[in-house]
């Protein structure tokens, strides 16, 4: 049970009918059935979760930055901890691709690491632009199209999004339209990104053309998760509801 009003700042789609949601304020992770509109299970964790990503075999990874750790959870009809990875710094955001974890750190420096599921670091890269601000949302997202893996990361200071390749080399820069400030980024496939900005507006970015399309104002749907099969975007503001949006 929640001790305080939930503050959901991270979520990941586990299947077409289930979400895993990190509740920062109540220091818990929740398994949500979006068809029955109910919480199936709630697991208290030793820290404040800031990011969730789906893994194969009904698992998720959850960052606990103030504990310098990543939890691996199994998600059946309940959530259970199957592994804990200790990292060197505040791991703020996490993604998964090609059997590897991609981790974005807030402290001690603004850097990205690629690691195996047992925590062995394979590559790391300190982002040169740094950041003196960080928002509750997801500043990292990964998309694989064919043989090409693209890592998208928010540069909050300069109001832009960077695309890195799988070797963590910068490939492209996308500047936000109309001087907007990004809050989160979500890759949804076919080289398309959804970007939540300050004020609650939602934009779509075609990363091949560099073209921005305005989708809606004052939506306040941070974080976000997208279901391709249902063509539905899930999002949560600071209320106690997960909302659905048709895309």
Index terms:
single chain, 247 residues, Methylamine Dehydrogenase, Chain H, 4-stranded antiparallel sheet, 23 strands, 0% helix
Poorly predicted regions are none
Instruction: Supply the number of structural domains.
Output: 1
Shape annotation: globular
Structural class: mainly beta
Distance between the termini: 32 Å
Helix content: under 10%
Q: Which strand order spans the largest sheet, edge to edge or round the barrel?
A: 1-2-3-4
CATH topology: Methylamine Dehydrogenase, Chain H
Oligomer: single chain
Structural summary, described in words:
With 247 residues, the chain is an all-beta fold. The protein has strands spanning 8-15, 18-23, 28-33, 38-44, 51-55, 59-64, 69-75, 79-86, 90-97, 100-107, 111-115, 121-126, 140-145, 148-155, 160-164, 170-175, 182-189, 192-197, 202-206, 211-216, 224-227, 232-235, 243-246. The strands form six sheets. The protein has a four-stranded antiparallel β-sheet, with no helix packed on it. A hairpin with a 2-residue loop joins strand 17 and strand 18. The protein is globular, with a radius of gyration of 17 Å. The two termini are 32 Å apart.
């Amino acid at each position: 049970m929640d001790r305080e009003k939930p503050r959901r700042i991270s979520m990941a789609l586990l299947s077409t009918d289930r979400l895993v949601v990190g509740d920062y304020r109540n220091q818990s992770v929740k398994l949500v059935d979006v068809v029955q509109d109910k919480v199936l299970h709630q697991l208290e964790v030793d820290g404040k979760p800031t990011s969730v990503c789906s893994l194969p075999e009904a698992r998720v990874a959850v960052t606990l930055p103030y504990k310098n750790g990543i939890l691996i959870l199994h998600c059946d009809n309940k959530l259970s901890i199957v592994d804990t990875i200790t990292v060197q710094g505040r791991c703020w955001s996490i993604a998964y691709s090609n059997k590897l974890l991609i981790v974005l750190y807030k402290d001690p420096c603004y850097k990205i690491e690629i690691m195996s599921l047992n925590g062995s670091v394979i590559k790391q890269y300190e982002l040169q632009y740094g950041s003196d601000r960080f928002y509750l949302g997801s500043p990292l997202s990964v998309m694989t199209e064919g043989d090409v893996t693209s890592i998208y990361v928010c540069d909050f200071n300069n109001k832009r999004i960077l695309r890195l390749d799988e070797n963590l080399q910068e490939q492209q820069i996308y500047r936000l339209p109309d001087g907007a400030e990004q809050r989160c980024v979500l890759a949804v496939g076919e080289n398309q990104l959804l970007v939540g900005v300050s004020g609650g507006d939602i934009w779509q970015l075609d990363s091949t053309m560099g073209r921005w399309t305005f989708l809606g104002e004052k939506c306040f749907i941070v974080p976000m998760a997208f279901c391709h099969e249902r063509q539905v975007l899930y999002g949560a503001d600071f209320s106690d509801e997960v909302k659905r949006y048709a895309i």
